[in-house]
Each structure stands twice: as C-alpha cells, then as structure tokens.
Design goal:
This is Fibronectin type-III domain-containing protein. By secondary structure, this protein is mostly beta strands. Helices cover about 10% and strands about 40% of the residues. It starts with 8 loop residues before the first strand and ends with a strand.
Amino acid sequence: MNNKKIALIFFALLLTACGGGGGGSTLSPVASTSTSPAAISVASTPNISESTVALSWQAVNAANSYEIWRSIANASGADATPQLVKRSDQTSFTDSGLMPATNYVYSLKSCMGNACSGGFEIKVKTLAKPLALPARANAPTLLKADDKQISFSWANVSGASAYRLQRNDGWEIANGAQLTQTTYTDTGLTAATSYIYRVQACNSSGCSEWSEAFTTATTALPTPPATPPASPVPAVPALPTAVVAGADSVNISWAAVNGASRYVLMRNNLAIGGNTLTAVRFLDSGLSVAVSYSYTVQACNNSGCSAASGAAIVKINTANKIILNVSGLDTSLNGNVALTMDGYENGKWVRRTETISSNGSVTSSTTVETGQQYGASISTQAANGQTCSTSPNGRVSTASGGDVSIVLNCLTPATLSFANASQTMLTDITNDMAQLATVKNSATKTITTGAVRYSSSNTSVAQVNATTGAITALQPGTASISASLPANLYTAGTASYTLTVAKNLASTRLRAIDIAQVLAQRPGSTYQILVPGREVLVRAYLYAISASDNRVPQVLVSVRGNATEIAMTCPAKLPLDSGAVTPSYTLAQTCNATLPAALVKNGMQIDVRTSDGQTLNSAPAVNDRNTLKLTLIPLKINANTAQMPSSADVTTAVRRTMPFTNVQIGVHAAWTPSGTWDDSLTSTGSGSDQWSQVLGLVDALRISENAEGHYYGFVPNIKWSSTAGIGYVGGPTAIGLDMRDDADFSSLNRTMIHELGHTLSLSHAPCGGVARFDPFFTNLPLAWANSDKAQLSEAPLYNQAASTLETPGALGSRNTDIMAYCSGLWFSEYSYHKMARYIQGQDSYGPQAIAAAEQMLITPLASQRMMLVSGNIAVNGSVNLEPVHLLGTRHQASPAKGDYQLRIISQDGSVILHRFSGIVTDHDSAVRIAVVVPAVANITSMDVLKDGKALPSQARMQAKSLKATANILAATRWSNGEFASIKRQGNSLQVHWDHHVYPWMSAVHISADGKRTVLSLHAAGGSQDLPLKPGFAGGTFEVSLSDGLNAVMKVAPY
C-alpha cells in the first residue's frame, strides 16, 4: 500500500447549510432569524492529497447555502477553534493550503438565510509527503551456485524498505513479493545453465529502476565416480525453528546440511515425519494446547546420522475468545459501529477492524492467548450519530485464562423536539406525518433513527402510528402527541405538541397517498423505500362524500422546502368515499403527479393539499446509495459465444425491478473460461458442478481485473438442463443463460434479475421446489396473505419506463416473488426492501465511491504486488485450491475477518495466517474461497483452517514435485534457462511456455488509463494464441506462469 495515496479517514465531518458568502475567518455562527433546515446526513471525501481535501455532501431540502468550518484535531489555541473557511451554494468544496499528515476536523452545515443546522462532522488526515524513490540498486553478486540453485546478494540501498527480483528476460521471481532481506536463493534451476538477475529497490512511493544485470550459471551435474567414496556422517544441524501454525499445528524448519540425504525429526524424543524425510521443513499437526513441545533434528546419509541439534521448544497457547457485550446500539435502520480489535494469535499481535451490528453477546473473530494483552477501540462511530465507547479502551487488559470480555456501550445522550408546539388537522385525514420528532446528540448533530415511538393522549380524537408518527384524525378535539426514545438506547426526555382536530367541511375526502418508483407503497409502511435522484409517482386517494356532488378540487403536491407546487391530474368524477382505502391499480382512478428526480433525496417530506382545505404530509424512507455498475461478459464455451442483450435492455430491466437510479453498463470482450466444458455446462451428473466452476472463474476474472461493481456472465444456451443461472449471495458475481432462442427475454427479465437479486443479499422464496429459502416468507404470523407461497402483497406494481401500473393478481393466485422458481417478474415488498437496505449499507453503490475507484486506476501506487488465492470448500468440508494467481499493485488485500483462515508457509519457515469469509450460492453449502493477500515469496504449502485446524484437502498442490519433474524435462524443451516466449503478432498475443515447469498461464492487458482486461486465466497446454480487440492499442501485458503455489510474472510492452 502506498501511503502517498491512502489516508486514514475518520468520519466526524460536520456540514452545515447556511446563507451568505465565503472566505476564511473565525466568525461565530450568525444568529438564527428563521427556521434552520435539516442537517446534512451524507458526506464524503472523494479526494485527499498532502495539501488538499475535497469534500462532497448531499443537498438538503430547504437549504440555500452551506457553511464549511475547519479545525485541527487535538490542537490548542487558535488551531483548535473552528474557522469558517467557506460559504457556498454548491454541494462540494476543495480546501487547499493544508499541512501534510495533519488531522483536520470539518463541520458542514446547511442554511436557509441566516439560520443554520447543526454540523455534520468528518475527521480527515491529509497525506504525508511522499518519500523520495530509492536510488538504483547495484547489481547482485554471487554467493554460491550448484547444479540446482543459485544464491546471491546485493547491497542495501538507503531509503529502501524492500526489494524485488527479476530473472532472465524480465521475469519477476519470488511471486513478485517484496523481500526485506538482501540475499536470495533461486531454486529448481537447470544444471549448466546461465541465468541473469536484476534487483529493484522499493519503498512506499514506488520502486527504482532495475539494477544492472548480473549473469551467472549453475554448475554441471556431477559425474558419479565408478566407486563412490564413503561419505562422512553429516554435520550436526543448526538449531531448528518452530513456529505455531494454527490451533493444533507447529511448523518446524531447519537449514540444509551438506552431505545429508535425509533427516530425522524428533518431537519430545520421539521420531516424527518417518525415515525418508528429505525436506527441510515439517508441519506437525494434531497437537494439544498448553503443552510444551521440544524439536530436534539429525542429518543422515548412508554412513549414518549426526548427533541431534539443539532443541527448539514451543507451546501452543490457549486461544481465548473475546466476547463483546454490546448494549445501546440503535439497529432500527441497520446501524453499526466499527471496532479496532487487538488480540494475540499464534504467537503474534493481530489487529483487525470488525463491524458490530447487533446488541447482546457477540463473539469477536479475534482471539487472545493466555498471558497476552487484548482490547478494542472505536474505529468508526455509528453513522446515525450515536456515540459508542469501549471498556476497556485499547490494548490494556491481559488474558489470564478463559474467555475475556469487552463492553461496547452505545447508550447516547439525546434530545427530542418538534418544530412547532401546536398543529391543526381536519377529521377524516389518515396517515398524516405533519410533524415528526427531531433527535440530536449532545453535539447538536441530528441522529437518524427509526427508534422514536409516538403516542396520543386522546385516542378518541386522534390516533398515532407508534413507529412512523403518522396521525389519523377521528373527531374534533385536542390531543397531546408525544415522542420518546427507548431508554436502553438513548438518555433523553420526551417531546410533545398539541394537536387540534377540527371538523372537515371539505366537499371531498383526502384519504391517503402512495408513492412509487417500482412498488406503489404508503409512506411509512413497513417495507416502503425510495432511491434518491429518481422520479417518484405520487398518487392521492381523493373521494367524493356525495354521489350528487361532482366537484373536483385542485390537488397540489410539493416537497417541503421547495416553493414549486405541482398540480396533480385527477379523475373527472371522483369515486364515492366508503371510509376505507383499497389499492388502485389504475392511474386514472386516483389523482397523480410525478416529482422531479432532483427533489428526491434522503430527508424529503412530501406535502399534498387540496383547494378545499385538506392536507396530507408524509416523510418517505429514502436510501442514499443509488448506483449499480454492471459488467456483462459474453462467455465462449467450446465454439459457441453467448448472444447478449443490449445495454439499454439491461438498464430497463434493472430499473424496472430494482432500487437503483443509475445503471452503468460495461460490455466485456468475449471471454473463454479455461477448462473442459460441456455445451451450456449441462452434462448429466456434472452440470451443476460446471456451473459452479465457471462462476468461480468469472469471479476470479473480476478480481484480476480489479473491477468495481458486479460481473454477470452469459452462458451460450445450446441445450437445456435444469440450471438457468447461479450467483453468489452477497457476492458481486453471477452467470446465466444467454439470449439465444429467448423471444420473451426470460433470460434477462427473470434469470438475470433473479441472479442479481442473489448478489444483492437475497435468498430464494418458497415456490417451485427451491431447496432452501428465506424463512421470512413462512414465519408466523405471515407478513401478508400467502407469503408462504412466495406470492406478492397487494402493493401495486409500477413500470416507471412505461408509466403504467400493474396488478399483482387476485388474492390467492397472485404473482410470485422473482426469487422463487415460479416465473415471477417482480420482487416482493420484502425482497425489494431487503435489497435496498443491503445497498444502503455498502459504500460501493454510491456514485462518488465508484468515481473514486475509477480514479484509482490511473493513480500510481507503490510496488507491493498482490496475489489471489482461490478455490472451494466442498459440502463435505474438503478444500480444493486453484493455482496461485499474481495480481497487480493496485489491488487491495481482502479484509482480515471471517470464520476461516488461509495458512501459507514459505520456504524460510514463516507462517502467514489470513482470516477470510467465504461466499456461497443459494443452491448448496459449498463455500467459495477468493482471498487477495500481499504476495509471499517461495511458498511451500497452503491450506485452509477452521477453528484453527486444517480442513482436509482434495488435491494439495506441491510446487516441489512439479519442479522436480521440470528439472528432468525442461532440458529437452527449452535451453539457456528460458521457459517462455511472448510475442504480439497483429491482433493476437502469442504465448508459449514450458508447461512442465509452469502448468498454468494467465495474461492481462493493461491500458494506458490502468484498465485491466484478462485475456487468459489458468490456461494450460503450453501454447496460447490470444485475440486482441482493436481498442487494445498501447499499454502493457502482464503474463504470469504458475506452478500452483508459486508464479513468475513478466510485464511486456504492447
């Protein structure tokens, strides 16, 4: 990671919207002379440098300007005092002239005239000044060579923190890893062969030029004498190294001894590893905790064995769970808080970020060994405005044996208030949200919560929805409407206002409104949700109170804080009032109008009023995230290339059914997944497995291309079996049948939307014989009639592109949720809401996050190469790992959290453990492994642990055996130490390589703007002619060759 480009961002940004001009000063806030608008609720820092911070925030209704205040965190004097640096009517600002590596606190406020809201606070650290690149390293020098390996060294370079190595014609070796030592032994070489080496010095700012070349050679194979002389007994080995490698494992390694043909390893004076141990390492498993183990090693040959080495003593300490006792966390709107967890595992300090999203007892994925310290601190406070704390705070406590606990307390002091002390309503008005309580914390920042509860003092006059605050006015009179917060979440009093209900003398009755982008729902209903920046249909249910009275009043709709009122189109003759409201599936039966997209945002309030004196107000739930980036891939299976839908058709299908405003479609070049496949992946008995394998390869393609957003691969529909598509639940990759022979667009409107639903966290719905489904649908009491059969609720369906309403069908035979197997075309209210909440919780669906990710493509990063470890954990728990795949330097490591651990052991005996979470489909319990980690040099073994113990492997890859075979065969195929050739010929890239040494080849084109396009992934056979599309002119190619555990890579110009 390059600290020149990555900053630590602590979200404590304070934004205030106000009126006025600009300029930096230390002015106090202007006294309020009018009602202040709502506070800013969403803000980000899309770009940070050493001297600038770019701020961006979501516009606030009723605000005509914004104030940006700045101070320095933990400073004293004037620096600690907030300064007004800008007043603006824009929703973005770039602050310049800042100091490097400094923690700034910004407070952003929304204003109307001179009245400003409380601030939205963000803490930002500017980047440190980049280090100067290291000087060019001197050429390496030879230490030792024999017929199989070469050892060399190089001089330390001032300012360098690591080094990379090349062999021969530009091939990076040691997995492209950054080496911290200044010596290296290259193994598995061919006898009597010349090799060329270069070294590169690196630090966080990048790497120097490659050094001058150093040329040397391996020795010839020794000629055995006619009568071999007696070999002396080998020398005593040096002290071995023993490293804890899991909850029941120790990795022992030692230096090779000249003249030794085998080794004897002793554990507590008992031989382990057998009598034919030739390796200089051994993974000892099945051990017990809290027991000391002593390891010695003897070097042996035909003449006998040496004395035992000194003893390496190691003990696997008990891994104690860290239990988080969480209280006070407001989860009403999917709130969460991020913790920095400190623990001690396998003899090393560990630090992870964990997200907590529930109260009660939560077991951390971090553990601590007995006698070691542990702790937690707040990494990111809850986005809703709560303030949480940990006790103990930081790594200050010591585990004495047994599980340990940490208290996470989010109980937050707060105040409740209503904008007006009194409110008037008319009888027969229902579900009116004229006044909702505002919640603020002690810093006067608005808290976004769904935990407010409302009550009425006189339910004969007015009833109030306890959750939404919506009022139903029953008869003239007065009532006190009160709001409170749960005492276990907030320390707050109550707030109230006086509601006066007057007799409704209007000639009509305004009973209800509903709003629609995809589903027509009542504001404040359980599953109601909108997305910002997308038009909204508003319908008013207006009824005549007399059959003889044909008057139709004017009906206007507006968004509070915006002066424009929009006239609604009403029926020429109103339906007669019955006192009840039933959903209408015809636009012409209700008054309706469309709100412009620019007015639709989080915090909006919709007001509907009639010219005969009635009003109905609502505060719909609105997401902040609204953008889907989707790459479509035409897969080529055998001789068949998938037939694709148009980007416009895909956009229409997504917007018709899903909670997105923006759909950014990219079309990938046709791509052939490496392997042997049946047409349409449908061979009897293997089809499902082939679908899973190709899905995994498409996911590896997405990761290798370092792409943001979702990938969807189309499979040529040559012959039908039982599978139409498959996708990861909560993972951004899916595949499905193509558009071949698909007159009704079922592959798009059903299969693709269904699989995208999986990628947005949805499980199946219970219809059509699905094996597993979301239990919501069958939980009692049922959410709506026949939900246990996956049938839709009564909510009207809105096709926004066609401006038409559709009915879900008659009660008892309604259409089904598209997540079932019963030919549904729409998501149920529950599924749609669940998707929307999942999207809201992921920064990647915000347009600013996508733009920032695209900017990273052209931002140079440091030299740390990454690698992808992928594979599957079968239903029976066995692990199948795929060949290690080297990646570029712009990839980010996977978060170190989850129930599994990837264990990598390198040649020097080092043990790397990286936690990860697997991803699954909704078809079986197999787990997909896809972990990005910094490249590790000279890997000798790799496996997966669960609860600290290794899972069985289906086929453990052994680089050593592959290279041993290569030493025998390489001489007959390649000479002079070469093993591959890369050549661009016209519109193709020709790659030939020694697949006895490296069975798998991957190739990537990198354009001048940093975009990665995978040409081949895990190709086999030793020769590939890869087509290049015309847009590839320029850039570079990355070609990597893998023996399963280790790889080499070459960057070649176009």
